[in-house]
Automatic annotation (TrEMBL):
Short name of one Pfam family: PD40
Family named by the database record: Belongs to the TolB family.
Source species of the chain: Prosthecobacter fusiformis
Protein name: TolB protein
Amino acid sequence: MTGPRILIIVLLLFLQPTVYAVTWPSWLSTSRGKKQVVSLPQRKLQLGDFTGGTGASAKKTLGAELTSSREFQLTEEGAEYAVSGSSVGGRVTGRLTRADGKLVFERTYAAPGLDENLSALADDIIFAATGKPGLSTSRLVFVSDRSGTKQIYRCDVQGKEIQQITHHPYGAVSPSLSPDGGAIAYTAYQAGFPIVQVLDLGLGWERTVTDTAGTSFGASFSPDGQRLALVMSFLGNPEIFVTDLGTNTAGCISDTLGAPSSPSWHPDGKQIIFADDRGRGPRLYVAEVPEKEKTEAKLFLWRAGPSFCTDPEFSPDGRMVAFTAGRGEDAAVIIKDYPQGKSQVIQSGGAQHPSWSPNGRYLCYTQHDTLYVHDLHTSQRRAVLTRYGAISEPRWMR
């Protein structure tokens, strides 16, 4: 089915989830015993001297950043890599070399803050040594009612540097970060109906993308940041649309009489997974995104397991899907191989709204108004933010 070309403004819907009683199938039962901690191999790294007036504090902070990443073992002997550099007045120069003495990179970081520069250096070291992005500079966005209405906030992966992003009188929900973290799409209420706004986090300008009638919600940035997937109802029944932010056009990729929600992109940009309630509880469907206009989109049911599935999100490598199963106190965060394979309950007892870290090792989610980061390799989790109002809908910057 193809959708008409339209002049688009990005809208979203302010929804409160309904509570359902769910009986878990046997294959979703979880052990309440002590979780096994897996010991993973770490690369050996020698942390050398940092010269300059702030060199000593820079070395200490960088060591803490690299240790917390769990990717390195800091050592003086048998190191695969060595890092050294200088720090003067917050300006940092970092140098990474291999054990054979070959220079991997030498870069200077001149952001206003010393910690910001060291976080960028730590991420560059992690990427150069492991091929996976670091998390020191990544950010989380989430919804909280701390101010009295639901608003969107941003913080780092340690739950620090908290910043309120929106200040809408009637609230804002359902955030989605662009891949580079420079923009955010979210739903706000204006003129009596929900509307999706796009906010440039660097320049501060804000815009809508269409003035079509009807409601829309669930915006999600494509991997290239040039498109949005969202639900729109201007044709009558809600459907999944893909909008091009450059040309302000949109095309319908679903054909349903149900209630679709929470679309999420495959990292190759060719598929979108979403939840759709067709009367028997929300299930997960996958739509192929047409490469050419006027090409019919293919749609199929993805058999995730339980009949109440929401909030799906592909892993960064596209090989797994994280989603919420169930509602209310019985909700659980589950991951499942894609397109088929085994599934695993990551956290039950009310956990929901999972989102993958850029390196695919962690999930963030909420449980009882607390924001958690969960290490999928070790099965350990830590509370990132608590006692900060009712926290929901976290999303990790890719």
